[in-house]
């Protein structure tokens, strides 16, 4: 692989060629991720997990990725059982784990934490979510899911739905989709529109997205509905919250007969009706699976093998 | 192995032939469990552990079983550090972990949770205890312990002692022992007798157990004392609790000179005197060990190797 | 290796020959610890970790040591998710984990816990810190650090600085350094002097250490400043604490131009200025790394390979 990034901090650090390299490598690792082939490419290697915030999905898929490649994992899943409770600062903890591991994965509640850590240690650092900031491996697995299920990314029509204001996932994803010439729609209540700064950035790169608050405007034309959760905390008025939540809920009646798939970064609450899980529309668990080969590709690219 | 169950949910799903297959396979894996031989039968395979209730013994013996076979383990040991705290439902969490793993082990406080999960996912599911329900691998290791230490199961005389009303372990075990024509005694205070439904079920299968509240009635004739804990919460009156607890406590004076062994699913509190630990009577730690080859046998039977 | 200790409980159990064996073996394992070479010396072996107190550094370096040698790890990192919460006693928990593992590592808040456990189980036991007691693998890695960085231990001049009264680390270390004929200085506030019992023990072995409360007295002559934290809880008067803390703080101005290194068992708070981290003086992260080859050497010596 000719991929050359040392750290995985933000999707903005990636060229389209970098992304393509990861997706290509992920595809070649899919049989290992599905446990249909064995690999020992990371035998004797150690991944250090520093999760200052809990995250089952991201943590477990990194662990599976590492272990399917025959590597080992150390670290902490939350900060209770770590020396963090003894008041050690982030830099010292990271430098310590870096002495024991060949790469670090960090999730932290503060934006910029992963970049800061990458400046402090010699081993590669992977950002697994830093507060309102970036979560680049999520974006890569979203792209990989589209490519594997739809056969391509370029030329797709993708609607991002729900909380586009605070949703870290959709910010990174819109940026990456723009690189591929995807036609995007941003579907959200007025209170939760995509931030003007991001829209401006996209426009600078000649990416124009349709913005609407009515999901029905996009249903007939999109290939992918990318749904995110609308959080109660965003609304002072509970009735307003209930009304809006209902207007962006995906159920079978809404999508039946349409030619589209439904994606979601998970965990989902009730923004997608359970009945959708068991239809060919619901692709979010398959999407979760695709996190494994994508993270395998990243780990293989960052950790020098014997 | 000709064992054909896809999931391990309840001992009632097992035929006697199924149980014999597991016990036979466990015996052949004992040298690996004792770390006297190596195995790589599950290289590259991942076991997903979903422990909604803490359980050191069951969790660690499954982990050792998987790792001695060169497989990997992911999951959560309690629900604090998982996305469960974000309100994700059980089905979604299970479907997610199933995307990363080749089999799931689940412990949950609600009866029926494991069966429900097995309907939701494509990978095999092992019930590691669901509330007042089943804990089939405990029963299998109890049987294996008797076979290995006593040389047989059929024809043994086994007394189940203590809390027979609420004890999940003794319910499953009595059912399985009935299949082997074991002569059983149920020894408990009146308040904690074996539930009539279970006694009725056993009778339907031509299994008759002696019931008594006096432990002295069985001591001279049994081969195995299977002791369980009597929990304080079962008694509104603390003095009544103390009196009853004392009457079912096993100490050296009670059993010395008898030809029997003492088993216990652990953890034990003071229902067995510490002095018994260091005598040939106390077999509960050896019993804990036998959980490893039994769980190895189950994992090998459920997870398709390369 | 001709090392013959069965358990690693206290540095006082070691002969100088024992220590030299471990250091020599650690040196040969350094390439594996740095992930420059592979090893499968502990394939199929399991290390059982019983951490009744959290400890990121010690726990993770043991895990890395075991995994770099291709072994597996089970256990608990704190007592919340274990059956300890169900009231099981230490001996029973240890005997249970010993049924699943080839060696135990225990950290406990009670002095003597590791020795007690070693009497209860058949597998080797490693003390990873027992309250105010011993932490022998820390001492061994401290010695290894000096040998690797300074090229020798014998003949060095080492100042132990800070809380010498309650600091478990410095008690064990002073004993071991005495065995090597190291010239020691004990630098502490009067309230936190090395306990007379330890000084007496050292004197019995013809080891004499200079005692002072003024760090400036030693700076020109020592090779190693071994710094420990002064804890606020030791001082009833916050102003007294602030004054003393300041007097023992190591910053760049204090040491620049001197021919010495700074060590620390970590985690450090503000007893060493951050600026020192990025100078050649600060060797504490390298010191943390040396815990890996030292623990590898211990694990290889205790766990019988196939």
UniProtKB/TrEMBL annotation, chains A, B, C:
Binding-site positions, L-aspartate: 86, 168, 229
Q: Name one GO biological process term.
A: 'de novo' pyrimidine nucleobase biosynthetic process
Give the stretches traversing the membrane. Answer: none
Q: Name one GO cellular component term.
A: cytosol
Where is each Aspartate/ornithine carbamoyltransferase Asp/Orn-binding domain found?
Answer: 154-301
> Per its UniProt record, what Gene3D superfamilies does this chain match?
Aspartate/ornithine carbamoyltransferase
Q: What class of enzyme is it?
A: transferase
Q: Which residues form the Aspartate/ornithine carbamoyltransferase carbamoyl-P binding domain?
A: 6-147
Q: Which GO terms describe its molecular function?
A: amino acid binding; aspartate carbamoyltransferase activity
Family affiliation: Belongs to the aspartate/ornithine carbamoyltransferase superfamily. ATCase family.
Q: How does it assemble?
A: Heterooligomer of catalytic and regulatory chains.
Q: What does this protein do?
A: Catalyzes the condensation of carbamoyl phosphate and aspartate to form carbamoyl aspartate and inorganic phosphate, the committed step in the de novo pyrimidine nucleotide biosynthesis pathway.
Full protein name: Aspartate carbamoyltransferase
Q: Which organism is it from?
A: Methanobacterium alkalithermotolerans
């Amino acid at each position: 692989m000719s991929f050359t990034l040392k750290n995985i901090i933000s999707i903005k650090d990636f060229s389209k060629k970098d992304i393509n390299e990861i997706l290509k490598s992920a595809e070649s690792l899919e049989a290992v991720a599905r446990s249909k082939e064995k690999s020992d490419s990371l035998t004797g290697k150690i991944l250090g997990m520093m999760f200052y915030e809990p995250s089952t999905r991201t943590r477990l898929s990194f662990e599976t990725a590492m272990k399917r490649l025959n590597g080992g994992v150390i670290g902490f899943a939350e900060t209770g059982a770590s020396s963090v409770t003894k008041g050690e600062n982030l830099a010292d903890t990271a430098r310590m784990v870096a002495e024991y591991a060949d790469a670090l994965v960090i999730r932290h509640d503060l934006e910029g934490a992963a970049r800061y850590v990458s400046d402090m240690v010699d081993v590669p650092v992977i950002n697994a979510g830093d507060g309102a900031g970036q979560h680049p491996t999520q974006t890569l697995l979203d792209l990989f899911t589209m490519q594997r299920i739809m056969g391509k990314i370029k030329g797709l029509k993708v609607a991002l739905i729900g909380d586009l204001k605070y949703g870290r996932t959709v910010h990174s994803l819109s940026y990456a989709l723009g690189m591929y010439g995807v036609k995007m729609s941003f579907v959200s209540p007025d209170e939760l529109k995509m931030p003007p700064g991001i829209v401006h950035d996209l426009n600078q790169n000649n990416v124009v997205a349709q913005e609407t608050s009515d999901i029905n405007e996009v249903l007939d034309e999109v290939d992918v509905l990318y749904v995110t959760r609308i959080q109660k905390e965003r609304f002072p008025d509970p009735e307003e919250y209930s009304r809006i939540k209902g207007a962006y809920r995906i159920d079978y009646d809404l999508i039946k007969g349409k030619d589209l798939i439904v994606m979601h970064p998970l965990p989902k609450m009730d923004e997608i009706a359970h009945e959708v899980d068991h239809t060919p529309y619901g692709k979010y668990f398959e999407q979760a699976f695709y996190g494994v080969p994508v993270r395998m590709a990243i780990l293989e690219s960052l950790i020098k093998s014997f």
